[in-house]
Known about the structure:
2 strands; globular; two-stranded parallel sheet; single chain; 14 helices; Growth Hormone, Chain: A
Amino acid sequence: MVDVAPPPPVDRPLLTRDFVVVTGAALLYFVALGALAPTLPRYVAEDLGGGGGQVGLAVGIFAVSAALLRPWVGKLGDERGRRLLVVGGSLVAGVSFLGYALPGGLPVLLAMRLLGGVGEAAVFVGAATTAQDLAPPHRRGQAASYFSVAIYGGLALGPVLGEVVRTTFSIGTVWPVAAVSCALAAALGSRMPAHVAVVDDEEDSAPPRDLRGLRRFFHPAAVRPGVVLALSASGFAGFSAFVPLYVDDVGLSSSGGVFALYAVVVLGVRIVGSRLPDVLGPRRGPSMALLLQGVGLVAIGAFATTLGLYASAFLYAIGTSLLYPALFPVVIAATPRRERSQAVATFTLFFDVSQAVGAPVLGLVAVVTGERGVFVAAGVLAFVGLVVHRSGHLPAAVASGTPCPPPRAGE
C-alpha cells in the first residue's frame, strides 16, 4: 500500500500501475451502479407496487445526496487522501445495495438510495482526481478519456450483468451481486496511493489560500467549467429521456439501436481518439464538442426520419465524447494540488444538478412543443454552453493548448 506516489515525470507512460488500479476500481464500482439501471425501476414498480412518480423518485433521489455531499467529500479527500474516498465510498455504496432487501417498502429503499449517493460522491471524486494527478500535465486530457472509459464501460456492462442475474436467479439477487462488485472496487482501491506528489504546479509552492464562505465548498476554478458541463448534460438528460418516446414518430419500434450507436461512438472516440483533447487544447476542444452537440440535437428535432435520427445521434455522440476530457484538465490546471478534490467535487456537482433539473424542465418543453421541441431546446442549451466557454478566461497553464508528443511503443 502506497501512501504517497512520486510525481509523474513528463516522459513517463500514462498507463502506470497506479493509474490502472484507480481506473479498475472505478470500473468495478460503475459495473455495480449499472447493474441497478434496468432492475431498480422494475423492482419499485413490480415488487413495491410503485407508480411512475415513485419510480422517478427512487431513481433520482440518489443524485440529491451525491450533489449535497460532493463539496464536503472533496475537502475530505484533499485533507485525508483520495484512497479513503474510493475505499470508503465503495463500501458505503455496497452496504446501501444490500439494504435494498430490508423490509419497510419504499421509505427504506429511498433511505438506502440516499446512502448510496454518499458513496457515489466519494468514489467519483477520489478516483477522478487521482487519475488526473497521476497523469503528466500534457496528458491530462488523455487521462480523462481513459478514465471516462471506465465509467461508460461499467455503465454499459452493468445493465447486462443486472439483467442476466435477474432472469437467471431473481431481482433480489442483483443487490448482493452489486455489493460484491463494490467490495472488489474497495479491495482494488486499497492498492492506490493516498496522495500523489505533484511538482508541476507553481501554486503548490505558495502557502494555502484562505477560501472563505461558499468558496470553502464550491471551488471558484470549477464554477465556469461546471456551468458549461451542466448546460451540456442537461441536453443529455433530454436525449436519454425522450429518444425512447421519439422513436415512434420516426418509425422505429425500439430506441435500443440509437443508444447502442451512442455508446459505441462515445467509447470508440475516447479510446481511439484519446489524445484529441490534448491536441485540440482547452479552447478548441470544448468549443468543437459543444458545437457538435448543439448541431446534433437540433438536427434530431429538425429531421424526423430514421436516417436523420441515427445521423444526428452520431454527431451528438462525437460531441459528448470530447467535452468531458477537454473540460476536466481546465479545472485541474487552474487548481493547486491541495485543493483538487474540492475542485473536482464542485465540477461534478454541476452534473448532478443538471440531471435533477434538466429532464423536468425539458419535460415542460415537451408538454408545449412535443418531443421535437425538446431536442431543439437541448441543442440551444449546448450553444449557450459554447458562449459561456468562449467568454471565459483560461488558466495560463493550459491556455496554449500545446499538442502532446506522439505515442511511444507500449502506450
